[in-house]
Amino acid sequence: MGQRTQLILLLLFIPYFVRESTAVGDYNGLLSVRGDLMNTPPNWEGSDPCGSNWIGISCTNSRVTSLQLLSMNLSGRLSREIELLSELQTLDLSYNKYLTGPLPPSIGSLKKLVILNLIGCGFSGSIPDTIGNLQQLTTISLNNNGFSGPIPASIGNLSNLNWLDLAVNQLNGPIPVSPGLDNLLHAKHFHLDNNKLSGEISPQLFSSNMILLHLILNGNNLSGSIPETIGSVQTLEVIRFDRNSLSGTLPSNLSNLVNVHELYLSNNKFIGSIPNLTGMSLTYVDMSNNSFTASDMPPWFSTLKSLTTLVMENTQLQGPVPSSIFSLPNLQTLTLRNNNLSGSLDIGTSYSSKLQLVDLQNNSIRHKVDSAGGYNKNLILVDNPICNTSDTTESYCAVSQSNTPPYSTPPNSCLTAQCSSNQISSPNCKCAYPYSGTLVFRAPSFSNLGNFSYYIALQSSLLQCFQNFSLPVDSVSLSNPIKDSTMNLDLSLDVFPSGQDSFNRTGISIIGSLLSGQTFKPPPGFGPYYFLADPYGYYAGISTESKKSLSIGVIIGAVAGGTILLLLLLLAGVYALRQKRRAERASEQLNPFAHWDPNNGSGGIPQLKGARSFSFEELKKYANKFSEANSIGSGGYGKVYRGILPDGQLIAIKRAQTESLQGGVEFKTEIELLSRVHHKNLVSLVGFCFDQGEQMLVYEYVPNGTLMDGLSGKSGIRLDWIRRLKVALGAARGLAYLHELANPPIIHRDIKSTNILLDERLNAKVADFGLSKLMGDAEIGHVTTQVKGTMGYLDPEYYMTQQLTEKSDVYSFGVVLLELITARMPIQRGKYIVRVVQTAMDRTKVLYNLHEILDPAIGLQTSLKGLEKFVDLAMRCVEESGAKRPAMGMVVKEIENIMELAGLNPNAESATTSDSYDVKKENAHHPYSHPYSNEGFEYSGVYPTSKIEPH
């Protein structure tokens, strides 16, 4: 065969033998990445990622140079074959909290990598030493993961590194030097806070050749003294050593660091005298809880003209408080409690107008000089002699509640829109689904959180940044500024889309990357930051640019094939036959009914017990031609229609849309499982349709929708404490039946409030068995299977081990129990309901001190008998270890006991809704929604209710 013929053959079979324009190695690398991940973008199809504009992929000359999949709700692991993307320069997978497992050592083969951002994921294990091979790296952001082990000394090889952020992990051991971080002479940022680092800080870590700006080491177990060599790093602006076990005297040359604005040294074991810091540019100083030598307040404090905050709690200060300190022009907060300050307090008349708090609790102050126009802000002198008299009525002798008003970006001269339960009104009063998260500022220069001008400036800067990149951003909102337990400033951020009610995946990824990559620069005063995005699930449709395009290579191949058709007839025939067989195999994999005749009663697939097969024409008739009048909801699976059988039975018909037909396995599973289980607390399957290319499930009609709709108020049903107990008991009994009475046992695998339905008497019925799994081998006690379920309800043990047990359902049910008492989403604005309850609980107080988070509709003015035991049960259900969780049978018994404690008969029939509950009249004829779709009736678009399934 001649050379020309060989070339034509190559062109003809390009689609089969090689991939189109994208380099073969890169394509294979992306296939491997896709194979190990779930929830990859929907347009990751076809053989040309570069030519087809796969979301998150950027290419140069047919080589993949950027992989950015931020906030994509990814789960799974990062493939070790990531190394095949040898031209990759940017890898940013931030804000995918269910992206877990170790960072593969093969990442060290990406020799051209410049940016590595994996912020807010779930990675664990050690950081591979091979990371030191990436000589081009300028940015490493691995913060807010679960990495453990030591910091690799090989990082010191990265001579171009500018940004090193390993904060909020479980890293341990000493800070490596020689080799180690002392070699990073071009680095400006060491963010290593909130780990388990230990040992002494080596003097070799610092040198005059460094250009370090931020040294953030707080929240570790570091010991020993701060080395004098720190005084040689003249460029430093932020120093945080707080919350360690450092000791010894402070370096005498700290004052050499004239550019330092924020100095945090609190909660250590420092001794000796407080060094003179005159000449520094300090705005924020915190030296609290150390063992300094007892001394008067240093006079040089009053020379720090830029100072906004001075915190010297428990630092052995004594003598009078010099009145000159109150005159510092920028002072906002002065906290000197738990010292031995004495004499008379004279704030004077020239105190700073910005001064909001003077806290002198637990000192020895006996008098207060009342000058004309005296200080009238927040002064606290509790536990001083001046207040230790029985008839004291002065306001400063009581600790008042913080009077800092809450902040939220106000509307822009418009009336706040009344939005649906899942949308939010933007500052421009438009309802939309914002991209949300938390901005965490590690060292702000201010402490007055009530000064809204800071947030207005930040809001303006954010909006300007997004507009500079021509992003479809309508507005930006900030809210809920708080100082967290690590003394960081947390701010909730909402970014609203322009021209539509939600962002697409590309928009989300770009916004996220501007924040993860530090492209956005906050205004002065906020200091270093990072962003933690909330999950986003309201993605708008894929743009036309992202759709697959016809490759030039394919066109050339087709033309060339036509010219030599006769010469290649035999080969083409073999090729066509092979393709046909591959297509048939693929079809069989996608269609579990490929060899099943629904009219054949021979017991083939699926195995049915009581459910009937409907034809398409039958269901079309029963649902009035699937008219809009009969539509009672829609979701990602398709639409749900109300129908009536000839015998008068109401039914709900769940009709899959064309793009959802690939869910055949789940379709078959639900048919088989629902047809073989019968319990009053399980939704009944009436039948199904597999006809004319349609997939439909036919259920009994459950009129009062989902538990989530009942809790949110959407259904118009009021659920008080008694009714919630009965709902909990009904759902628990349904689950207990699946676990303990079904043969073999069944694990539901997707328990959540949208899969618990309420009938006309508000009895609970467990629904949606599309992800359920049979426990075929009771001796093993688990099923090893790919992780599926719904985030927010997902058992962490199952997620980490892929070993599914009945206790996985118990965990999900525990989350539902917490929903029942709080009416909160499992995950909202980054706050997980389990952690919220754990944090708020105080078993020594009435109702466990949960008043603030209990749903007011539960009836807080009435007796909530048994609520504490109910909370105890819920928290046992959500134990980290499955072995510590009760079985569902035990859960049923405990809820029955709680009901008896509340004076109820657990076996009594529930009342109808009309007996004592206000249900909107229109619901009786056209319900607001119906729950049989997998996605349509969840907390729409909110991450915790996004299914975890393979792509």
List the helices and strands and how they pair.
Layout: H1 3-12, H2 14-17, H3 24-35, E1 37-38, E2 57-60, E3 63-68, E4 75-77, E5 90-92, E6 98-101, E7 115-117, E8 122-126, E9 139-141, E10 146-149, E11 163-165, E12 170-173, E13 189-191, E14 196-200, E15 214-216, E16 221-224, E17 238-240, E18 245-249, E19 262-264, E20 269-271, E21 284-286, E22 295-296, E23 309-311, E24 317-319, E25 333-335, E26 340-345, E27 357-359, E28 364-368, E29 378-380, E30 424-425, E31 431-432, E32 435-441, H4 453-468, E33 473-483, E34 489-497, H5 505-516, E35 529-533, H6 552-563, H7 569-590, E36 612-613, H8 616-622, E37 631-634, E38 638-644, E39 650-656, H9 664-676, E40 685-691, E41 694-700, H10 707-712, H11 721-740, E42 746-747, E43 756-758, E44 764-766, E45 773-774, E46 783-784, E47 789-790, H12 796-801, E48 803-804, H13 806-822, E49 827-828, E50 831-832, H14 833-840, H15 867-877, H16 888-901, H17 913-916, E51 947-948
Parallel strand pairs: 3-5, 4-6, 5-7, 6-8, 7-9, 8-10, 9-11, 10-12, 11-13, 12-14, 13-15, 14-16, 15-17, 16-18, 17-19, 18-20, 19-21, 21-23, 22-24, 23-25, 24-26, 25-27, 26-28, 27-29, 36-40
Antiparallel strand pairs: 1-4, 2-3, 30-31, 32-34, 32-35, 33-34, 37-38, 38-39, 39-41, 40-41, 42-45, 43-44, 46-48, 47-51, 49-50
Helix pairs in contact: 1-6, 11-13, 11-16, 13-15, 15-16
